[in-house]
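ARCHIVE CARD
CATEGORY: sequence design from structure
SOURCE FIELD: tokenized fold
FIELD CONTENT:
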């Protein structure tokens, strides 16, 4: 009897090991496949202003990223945009109700942050606002994109906020912001650009947030933020991009208020030749 029990235990353990190895192998193959996709099949999001600014310096570099097949340019073409963004779910709902959104629009982006552009109620309860945005977008035939910012964790009176001694990233993950965004959208961004000068920290946060998003919605596409705000060195941006190349499906390239466009162009050139 003891021999039978021992044999059963050995068989069970062996099966668990095989299943674990198979799962690990499949995960490795998936990551390897994602890493091999290349720039042409990555999602690149940017504004029409960013694309125009970069094109004024290097048209090929601008087209290589923001003109790639999977790219999304917010506000372009002028007059008949395919994609638009809102910082307020309430404003988006009003525009839907008033039928003021151009008929050309197919993609709608919601960017809730701890800033004045997002109404106080949405800052304090971002999850319900994101779910409302996604539901309304889908009901009206739009593809929803949601890009929540970790600064939401520092909003006074928030339903879930940063605790004493807790990092912003840890609070964001604990509060399930990325998972909620993924349930509401087809594409979500991890706004990790404030960490891009530290590739290890950037990679860790993006990896954890992407995992949370895909657990909540296995079909969601995840992108991460890249910005010229925090560095004058394009190699810093390149290192951040490379650190998550096998983790995300693309990036949001931000050149806020036209800050350091030449850095973005040099970064684009490096990515296109990688």
């Amino acid at each position: 009897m003891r021999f039978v029990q021992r044999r059963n235990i050995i068989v069970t353990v062996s099966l668990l090991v095989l299943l674990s190895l198979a799962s690990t192998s499949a995960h490795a193959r998936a990551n390897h496949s994602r890493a091999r996709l290349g720039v042409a099949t990555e999602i690149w999001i940017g504004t029409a202003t960013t694309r125009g600014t970069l094109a004024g310096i290097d048209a090929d570099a601008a087209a290589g990223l923001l003109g790639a097949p999977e790219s999304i340019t917010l506000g372009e073409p002028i007059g008949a945009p395919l994609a638009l963004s809102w910082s307020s779910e309430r404003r988006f709902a009003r525009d839907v109700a008033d039928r003021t959104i151009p008929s050309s629009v197919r993609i709608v982006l919601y960017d809730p942050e701890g800033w004045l552009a997002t109404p106080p109620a949405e800052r304090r309860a971002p999850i319900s606002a994101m779910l409302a945005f996604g539901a309304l977008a889908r009901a009206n035939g739009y593809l929803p994109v949601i890009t929540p910012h970790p600064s939401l964790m520092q909003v006074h009176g928030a339903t879930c906020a940063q605790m004493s001694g807790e990092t912003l990233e840890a609070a964001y993950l604990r509060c399930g912001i990325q998972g909620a965004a993924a349930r509401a959208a087809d594409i979500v961004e991890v706004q990790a650009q404030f960490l891009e000068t530290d590739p290890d920290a950037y990679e860790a946060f993006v990896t954890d947030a992407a995992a949370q998003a895909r657990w909540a919605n296995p079909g969601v596409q995840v992108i991460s933020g890249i910005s010229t705000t925090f560095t004058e060195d394009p190699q810093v941006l390149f290192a951040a991009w490379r650190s998550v190349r096998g983790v995300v499906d693309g990036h949001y390239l931000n050149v806020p208020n036209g800050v350091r466009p030449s850095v973005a162009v040099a970064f684009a050139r490096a990515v296109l030749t990688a």
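CARD ANNOTATION: The first strand starts at residue 43 and ends at 47. Confidence is low (pLDDT under 50) at residues 1-37.
SHELF: design records, drawer C
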